[in-house]
Amino acid sequence: MSFNSKILIVGATGRNGRELLSQFNENNIHVRAMVRNIEKTKKLKNATTELIEGDLSDPESLKVAFIDIDIAYIVTPVHPDSVIWFSNFFNAAKNANVKHVIKFSGFGADINSDSEVLRQHGESDKQLMESGLTYTILRPNSFYQNILWLSTQIKARGKFCMPLADASQSFIDMRDVAEATFNICTSDTHKNKIYKLTGPESLSLNSMANKLSSATGRLIKYMPITIKASEAGMKAAGLPEWNARVLAEIQGIFATGAYSKTTDDMKILLGREPRTFTDFAADYANHF
Ligand SMILES: NC(=O)c1ccc[n+]([C@@H]2O[C@H](COP(=O)([O-])OP(=O)(O)OC[C@H]3O[C@@H](n4cnc5c(N)ncnc54)[C@H](OP(=O)(O)O)[C@@H]3O)[C@@H](O)[C@H]2O)c1
Predict the structure, then answer these.
(1) Which of 37, 125, 190, 274 gives 176 a disulfide partner, CB atoms 3.0 to 4.6 angstroms apart?
(2) For residue 198, is pLDDT > 70?
(3) Burial track 107-137 (b if 16+ CB lie within 10 A, e otherwise)
(4) Quick check: 2 pLDDT over 70?
(5) In angstroms, what CA-CA distances link 260 with 197, 198, 257?
(6) CA-closest residue to ligand 1 atom 4
């Protein structure tokens, strides 16, 4: 693919950023990846990826990262400062006359959400929409790949514990989200749009456990736990207090079944059906 715009990726060392970077690498399109520590991320550098050091909390570093950039993508971690970080990024994009900003948000992002994380995204999404910048906002539901966080307990005990009761959710494959994002970055047809990204079906964790069992040939069970136990477990595993609290909070919302709706947005962005959880389970069976 021949493509002349200069692209900046922020968050390229993270789960979604790495998938997106692979898309650009596979298509031989040059990108600039802003990383916090070049020394630690040297292996990302290749013929199509240029690295630049920068930090979202440091506007001066963003000024340098944005030199000559036409299109800028941002994903941040779940973090108490994310609204400030997004704001710094949008200001830098505006000052650099960037033509298109692609922001990673979350399904249900809303300034009035019961979830602090989704209120943060709602606030930043609103700021971007009102900034005068040309934007595309991606609001994906939870990823199939989140279950990889539980692969150690699944391997050891043949079960995984989550506080989602018997609720269904329209989970999505991160690889599809990256391909959709790549298509957005390299096309003019998705400007000033918000996409609600879901997989093709709504699934309960019991049915995901059954699909993992079929893919691995081992019995894998889902054990529902309370939200309180989930928060305590995340803290015990070393997650900072704030992260454990806001993640448990959002799990409580997922457990109501409020995130089970599917949309057709992925079909529009991919030109095909998004991957099913059965596809994911087959591809990742060796992790479990
Ligand atoms: N989990 C889900 O199911 C789900 C679903 C929908 C939406 N989301 C949203 O997805 C996002 C998280 O995505 P992810 O899992 O891909 O994130 P991630 O793996 O935690 O990656 C975060 C990236 O941000 C970088 N970063 C952290 N602090 C930074 C700073 N101060 N300046 C510049 N870069 C910084 C990290 O770089 P380092 O390598 O330097 O740390 C890393 O590259 C959140 O906004 C979340 O709300 C998640």
Answers:
(1) 274
(2) yes
(3) bbbbeebebbbbbbbbbbbebbeeeebbbbb
(4) no
(5) 12, 9, 6
(6) 142
pLDDT recorded at residue 62: 98
Place of tokens 């997650």: 239
Helix crossing, 116-129 with 241-254: angle to 10°? 90
Q: How far is the CA of 218 from the centre of ligand 1 (A)?
A: 32
**Helices 241-254, 227-236: crossing angle, 10 deg rounding:** 150
User: Quick check: CB of 57 below 6 Å from ligand 1?
Assistant: yes
Q: Which tokens in the block code for residue 274?
A: 């998004």
At residue 4, the pLDDT reads 86
Q: What is the mean pLDDT of residues 201-220?
A: 98
CA angle 83, 19, 134 (to 5 degrees): 45
What's the rounded mean pLDDT across residues 236-247? 97
Residue 3 pLDDT exceeds 90? no
| DSSP state letter for 150 | G
| Distance in angstroms (rounded) separating the CA atoms of residues 288 and 213 | 9
